[in-house]
Amino acid sequence: MPVTRPVAPAAQPCSILLLAGGRGARMGGRDKGLLLWRGAPLIAHVQAVVRPFSDDLIISCNRNAERYRAYADQWVSDAQQGFPGPLAGVLAGLAVARHPWLLVLACDAPKIDATLIQALLDARKACDQPVMVQQAGHWQPMFSLLPTALLEPLRQAWDHGERSLLRALDPRRLNAVHCAEDDPRLSNFNTPELLSETDPRPLA
User: Fold this and answer.
1) What is the pTM of this model?
2) Distance separating alpha carbons of residues 178 and 85, to the nearest angstrom
3) How far apart are CA 198 and CA 204, in angstroms?
4) Are strands 57-60 and 40-41 parallel, antiparallel or unpaired?
5) DSSP strand E in 123-203: where?
6) Which CATH architecture has domain 15-195?
Protein backbone atom coordinates (compact mmCIF):
# COMPACT_ATOMS: atom_id res chain seq x y z
CA MET A 1 0.00 0.00 0.00
CA PRO A 2 1.33 3.49 -0.80
CA VAL A 3 2.54 5.61 2.09
CA THR A 4 0.58 8.85 2.28
CA ARG A 5 3.04 11.00 4.19
CA PRO A 6 6.83 11.34 4.20
CA VAL A 7 8.87 9.58 6.85
CA ALA A 8 10.98 12.66 7.56
CA PRO A 9 11.11 16.21 6.16
CA ALA A 10 13.87 17.16 3.75
CA ALA A 11 16.41 19.70 5.01
CA GLN A 12 15.53 21.99 2.09
CA PRO A 13 11.90 21.36 1.15
CA CYS A 14 11.14 20.44 -2.44
CA SER A 15 8.11 19.32 -4.37
CA ILE A 16 8.39 16.12 -6.41
CA LEU A 17 6.83 15.50 -9.81
CA LEU A 18 6.42 11.97 -11.18
CA LEU A 19 5.71 12.04 -14.90
CA ALA A 20 3.13 9.44 -15.90
CA GLY A 21 1.28 11.29 -18.63
CA GLY A 22 2.74 9.70 -21.73
CA ARG A 23 0.99 7.91 -24.56
CA GLY A 24 2.77 4.60 -23.82
CA ALA A 25 3.33 4.02 -27.53
CA ARG A 26 6.11 1.46 -26.99
CA MET A 27 3.86 -0.32 -24.49
CA GLY A 28 1.03 -0.74 -26.97
CA GLY A 29 -0.79 2.33 -25.66
CA ARG A 30 -1.05 1.01 -22.11
CA ASP A 31 -0.68 3.41 -19.18
CA LYS A 32 2.94 2.73 -18.34
CA GLY A 33 2.93 3.91 -14.74
CA LEU A 34 0.27 1.35 -13.84
CA LEU A 35 1.96 -1.65 -15.43
CA LEU A 36 3.15 -4.25 -12.93
CA TRP A 37 6.80 -4.96 -12.12
CA ARG A 38 7.72 -7.18 -9.18
CA GLY A 39 4.06 -7.38 -8.27
CA ALA A 40 3.37 -3.64 -8.03
CA PRO A 41 2.75 -0.79 -10.50
CA LEU A 42 5.85 1.03 -11.70
CA ILE A 43 4.56 4.23 -10.10
CA ALA A 44 4.44 2.48 -6.70
CA HIS A 45 8.13 1.58 -6.83
CA VAL A 46 9.20 5.13 -7.63
CA GLN A 47 6.78 6.64 -5.13
CA ALA A 48 8.08 4.44 -2.32
CA VAL A 49 11.61 5.78 -2.84
CA VAL A 50 10.77 9.47 -3.14
CA ARG A 51 7.93 9.72 -0.60
CA PRO A 52 10.23 10.44 2.40
CA PHE A 53 11.72 13.47 0.64
CA SER A 54 8.64 15.65 0.32
CA ASP A 55 5.21 16.54 1.67
CA ASP A 56 4.23 17.68 -1.83
CA LEU A 57 4.25 14.73 -4.22
CA ILE A 58 2.67 15.52 -7.59
CA ILE A 59 1.79 13.04 -10.33
CA SER A 60 1.33 14.19 -13.91
CA CYS A 61 -1.16 11.89 -15.64
CA ASN A 62 -3.55 12.23 -18.56
CA ARG A 63 -5.74 9.22 -17.73
CA ASN A 64 -6.58 6.97 -14.77
CA ALA A 65 -6.37 9.91 -12.37
CA GLU A 66 -8.32 8.09 -9.66
CA ARG A 67 -5.81 5.24 -9.61
CA TYR A 68 -2.86 7.61 -9.44
CA ARG A 69 -4.43 9.73 -6.72
CA ALA A 70 -3.52 7.16 -4.06
CA TYR A 71 0.18 7.78 -4.71
CA ALA A 72 0.23 11.59 -4.60
CA ASP A 73 -0.68 14.70 -2.65
CA GLN A 74 -1.95 16.30 -5.84
CA TRP A 75 -2.15 15.41 -9.52
CA VAL A 76 -2.06 17.42 -12.72
CA SER A 77 -2.73 16.81 -16.38
CA ASP A 78 -1.41 18.51 -19.51
CA ALA A 79 -3.08 21.74 -20.53
CA GLN A 80 -2.75 20.61 -24.13
CA GLN A 81 -4.47 17.62 -25.74
CA GLY A 82 -2.78 14.74 -27.55
CA PHE A 83 0.03 13.74 -25.15
CA PRO A 84 2.39 16.61 -26.11
CA GLY A 85 5.39 15.29 -24.14
CA PRO A 86 7.25 15.63 -20.83
CA LEU A 87 7.70 19.40 -20.99
CA ALA A 88 3.93 19.84 -20.81
CA GLY A 89 3.85 17.77 -17.63
CA VAL A 90 6.74 19.73 -16.14
CA LEU A 91 4.93 23.01 -16.81
CA ALA A 92 1.81 21.68 -15.08
CA GLY A 93 3.87 20.50 -12.11
CA LEU A 94 5.76 23.77 -11.74
CA ALA A 95 2.47 25.66 -11.73
CA VAL A 96 1.17 23.85 -8.63
CA ALA A 97 4.40 23.07 -6.73
CA ARG A 98 4.28 24.22 -3.11
CA HIS A 99 8.04 24.52 -2.61
CA PRO A 100 10.80 26.55 -4.36
CA TRP A 101 12.29 23.44 -6.01
CA LEU A 102 10.68 20.69 -8.09
CA LEU A 103 12.31 17.27 -8.46
CA VAL A 104 11.31 15.77 -11.82
CA LEU A 105 11.35 11.99 -12.34
CA ALA A 106 9.80 9.54 -14.78
CA CYS A 107 7.41 6.84 -13.62
CA ASP A 108 9.30 4.11 -15.50
CA ALA A 109 12.59 4.19 -13.57
CA PRO A 110 11.80 1.88 -10.62
CA LYS A 111 15.44 1.24 -9.73
CA ILE A 112 16.09 4.81 -8.61
CA ASP A 113 17.32 4.99 -5.03
CA ALA A 114 17.46 7.45 -2.16
CA THR A 115 21.20 8.05 -2.63
CA LEU A 116 20.66 9.47 -6.11
CA ILE A 117 17.73 11.58 -4.94
CA GLN A 118 19.87 13.00 -2.14
CA ALA A 119 22.71 13.73 -4.58
CA LEU A 120 20.34 15.79 -6.72
CA LEU A 121 19.06 17.67 -3.68
CA ASP A 122 22.57 18.30 -2.35
CA ALA A 123 23.72 19.71 -5.70
CA ARG A 124 21.39 22.71 -5.37
CA LYS A 125 23.45 24.01 -2.46
CA ALA A 126 26.19 25.10 -4.83
CA CYS A 127 23.99 27.48 -6.85
CA ASP A 128 20.42 28.29 -7.81
CA GLN A 129 20.73 26.71 -11.26
CA PRO A 130 18.80 23.63 -12.41
CA VAL A 131 20.36 20.29 -11.51
CA MET A 132 20.33 17.29 -13.86
CA VAL A 133 21.88 13.85 -14.02
CA GLN A 134 24.60 13.54 -16.63
CA GLN A 135 25.23 9.93 -17.63
CA ALA A 136 28.52 9.31 -19.43
CA GLY A 137 28.38 12.83 -20.88
CA HIS A 138 24.69 12.73 -21.81
CA TRP A 139 22.07 14.77 -19.99
CA GLN A 140 19.06 12.91 -18.54
CA PRO A 141 16.17 15.39 -18.26
CA MET A 142 13.92 12.88 -16.50
CA PHE A 143 16.26 13.02 -13.49
CA SER A 144 16.37 16.72 -12.74
CA LEU A 145 15.75 19.33 -10.05
CA LEU A 146 14.32 22.67 -11.13
CA PRO A 147 13.77 25.99 -9.35
CA THR A 148 10.06 26.74 -9.61
CA ALA A 149 11.04 30.27 -10.65
CA LEU A 150 11.73 28.76 -14.07
CA LEU A 151 8.01 28.37 -14.77
CA GLU A 152 7.65 31.56 -16.79
CA PRO A 153 10.85 31.12 -18.87
CA LEU A 154 9.83 27.56 -19.68
CA ARG A 155 6.32 28.70 -20.59
CA GLN A 156 7.82 31.25 -22.94
CA ALA A 157 9.98 28.57 -24.53
CA TRP A 158 6.87 26.43 -25.00
CA ASP A 159 4.94 29.32 -26.56
CA HIS A 160 7.81 29.73 -29.03
CA GLY A 161 7.47 26.11 -30.10
CA GLU A 162 10.07 24.38 -27.93
CA ARG A 163 9.03 20.89 -26.80
CA SER A 164 12.33 19.64 -25.36
CA LEU A 165 12.90 20.22 -21.65
CA LEU A 166 16.66 19.97 -22.11
CA ARG A 167 16.80 22.60 -24.86
CA ALA A 168 14.39 24.85 -22.98
CA LEU A 169 16.66 24.76 -19.92
CA ASP A 170 19.88 25.58 -21.84
CA PRO A 171 22.44 22.84 -21.01
CA ARG A 172 25.19 25.44 -20.52
CA ARG A 173 23.52 26.52 -17.28
CA LEU A 174 22.89 23.10 -15.77
CA ASN A 175 24.55 21.76 -12.63
CA ALA A 176 25.50 18.12 -13.26
CA VAL A 177 25.18 15.07 -11.02
CA HIS A 178 27.43 12.55 -12.73
CA CYS A 179 26.45 8.90 -13.14
CA ALA A 180 28.21 6.03 -14.90
CA GLU A 181 27.02 4.79 -18.25
CA ASP A 182 25.94 1.46 -16.75
CA ASP A 183 24.27 2.91 -13.63
CA PRO A 184 21.21 0.65 -13.14
CA ARG A 185 19.33 3.34 -11.23
CA LEU A 186 18.72 5.19 -14.50
CA SER A 187 17.17 2.23 -16.30
CA ASN A 188 13.91 3.13 -18.05
CA PHE A 189 11.42 0.30 -18.33
CA ASN A 190 9.74 1.66 -21.45
CA THR A 191 9.29 -1.50 -23.52
CA PRO A 192 7.55 -4.80 -22.73
CA GLU A 193 10.88 -6.61 -22.97
CA LEU A 194 12.51 -4.45 -20.31
CA LEU A 195 9.47 -4.61 -18.09
CA SER A 196 9.42 -8.40 -18.15
CA GLU A 197 13.06 -8.81 -17.15
CA THR A 198 13.66 -10.77 -13.97
CA ASP A 199 15.90 -9.22 -11.33
CA PRO A 200 16.51 -11.50 -8.33
CA ARG A 201 17.75 -8.70 -6.13
CA PRO A 202 15.20 -7.25 -3.70
CA LEU A 203 14.32 -3.60 -3.86
CA ALA A 204 16.19 -1.48 -1.34
Assistant:
1) 0.84
2) 25
3) 16
4) unpaired
5) 131-135, 138-147, 175-179
6) Alpha-Beta Complex (3.90)
